[in-house]
Amino acid sequence: MTPETRFDILVAGEINPDLILTGDIVPAFHQTEKLVDSASLTIGSSSAIFACGAARLGLNVAFIGMCGDDIFGRFMLDEMQIRGVDISHVVLRRDGQTGLSVILNQGEDRAILTYPGLISTLRASDISDTLLQYARHLHVASYFLQMNLQPDLSGLFRRAQSLGLTTSLDTNYDPTEEWTGFNELLAVTNVFLPNEKEVISLTNQSNVDSAADKLKSGVETLGIKLGADGALGVRNGEKIRVASIPVNVIDTVGAGDSFDAGFIYGYLAGWSLEKMLRLGCVCGALSTQNAGGTNGQPTLDETRKYLAIG
Q1: So what's the pLDDT on residue 3?
Q2: HEC profile of the chain
Q3: At a CB cut-off of 8 Å and minimum separation 6, what does 26 contact?
Q4: Given Cys at both, which of 186, 233, 287, 308 links 296, Cβ 3.0 to 4.6 Å?
Q5: What residue segments make up the domains of the chain, in order of their start?
């Protein structure tokens, strides 16, 4: 890295591909074989899909994480690099295996089985101030899967902010459903990007509006993903809902991560809350028109017919 290098976004995240199976079937044990309609190996992990979406929009994105020196790890790094993500800070480990998620798509619903592998091994201490100082923004996703990053993520965000970076967090779902220990972390999170179910669970509220109201005093910018119903945003006392756009849905894997990429693009560009939300919704919706989390991600030019972008 040279002193002149500067990234718009540094993503600290997990690395695993998705094996996506699509079909109107329910798996059964006792050696029962059922046929699916299609199968594909694609870029997985919330963090990697976000990174690819942000790069597709034209941002300069770097990634730090851990993966095995194996077929799944090499697949992920090759595919991320093809999509313009700087992978030079990813650590290849020979003492572990890259994680893998097997996803069964059934209409707009899906079931997911994940082998964690090295997903949880990245630590805050692996992310140096030297690397942070070359970025404008730090993004973290899959909080509950990145277990070794959790204990000092608040400290990492504080370090980043002290160096002039802004921070964003997409927790994804908590498999334990405990949703505890977030007060300190959210206090140093500039942009929080949960979906409706996650924000309701986190705040122990009955609906998304009351959940947003509970969080609005503790988070600078809040973008809540509502799926086909669009998104809800809160910033500086302003609360806005925007609608999504109609699309022919093929695969919803990674749509929330593509929303995050659009939202953060607008945030870094200094856009209004409404404009950030609209780009997020457009990016999330367009991403569902192809199988896999990254194959349908739009360029900025491809979003122009859905919203006015200067």
Answers
A1: 44
A2: CCCCCCEEEEEECCCCEEEEEECCCCCCCCCCCCCCCEEEEEECCHHHHHHHHHHHCCCCEEEECEEECCHHHHHHHHHHHHCCEECCCCEEECCCCCCEEEEEEECCEEEEEEECCCCCCCCHHHCCHHHHCCEEEEEEECCCCCCCCHHHHHHHHHHHHHCCCEEEEECCCCCCCCCCCCHHHHHCCCEECCEHHHHHHHHCCCCHHHHHHHHCCCCCEEEEECHHHCEEEEECCEEEEECCCCCCCCCCCCHHHHHHHHHHHHHHHCCCHHHHHHHHHHHHHHHCCCCCCCCCCCCHHHHCCCCCCC
A3: 34, 106
A4: 287
A5: 46-96+119-303
Nearest C-alpha neighbor of 295 from the set 246, 261, 253, 263: 253
Is the pLDDT confidence value at 164 over 80?
yes
Query: What φ, ψ does residue 40 adopt, rounded to 5°?
Result: -150, 145
Distance from C-alpha of 247 to C-alpha of 196, rounded to nearest angstrom: 20
Environment class of 217 (CB within 10 Å of its CB; exposed 0-12, middle 13-18, buried 19+): exposed
Place of tokens 């600290």: 12
pTM (two decimals): 0.93
Query: What are 18-53's pLDDT values in tens digits?
Result: 998 989 999 999 999 999 999 989 999 999 999 999
